[in-house]
Write a structure and sequence with these properties.
By secondary structure, the chain is mainly β. The chain has one domain (about 15-50, about 60-95). About 0% of the residues lie in helices and about 30% in strands. It is built from no helices and 10 strands. The chain has strands spanning about 15, 20-25, 35-40, 40, 45, 70, 75-80, 90, 95, 95. The strands form 2 sheets. The protein has a 6-stranded antiparallel β-sheet with strand order 5-1-2-7-6-10, with no helix packed on it. A 4-stranded antiparallel β-sheet has the order 4-3-8-9, with no helix packed on it. A hairpin with a 6-residue loop joins strand 6 and strand 7 (about 75-80).
């Protein structure tokens, strides 16, 4: 009983349908919403029921809590609030961890 995300807006919470990944939309592109997937399956609004546990815990997680993920054009930005084994993708292209900005020297 999952519903597809039709509109992305800052503050929207999404959950993975296959693992424990949960994200918040920080920045959304103008126009039609891209398809955001985790572990190959579309993400659903976080108000949906939690997925059934699948597989055991792993030592590495594909999506890390507290990290910001961006698409290739950096028009979509997601903040991970719960880590999991699924990898985030936007329209079939893997999302990457947003690089930290360099601070100016304080001379």
């Amino acid at each position: 009983m999952s519903s597809a995300v039709r509109e992305l807006r800052p503050g929207l919470q999404l959950a993975s349908a296959v693992c424990g990944v949960r994200v918040i939309v920080v920045r959304a592109p103008a126009g039609p919403a891209p398809e955001i997937t985790c572990g190959g399956e579309p993400m659903v609004p976080a108000a949906s029921p939690a997925p059934a546990a699948s597989g055991g815990p792993t030592s590495e997680t594909a999506t890390l809590i507290g990290k910001r993920y961006v698409d290739t054009e950096e028009t979509l930005e997601l903040l991970c609030t719960s880590s999991g084994t699924g990898a985030l993708s936007c329209d079939g292209v893997p999302m990457t961890v947003k690089a930290a900005k360099a601070l100016p020297a304080s001379d």
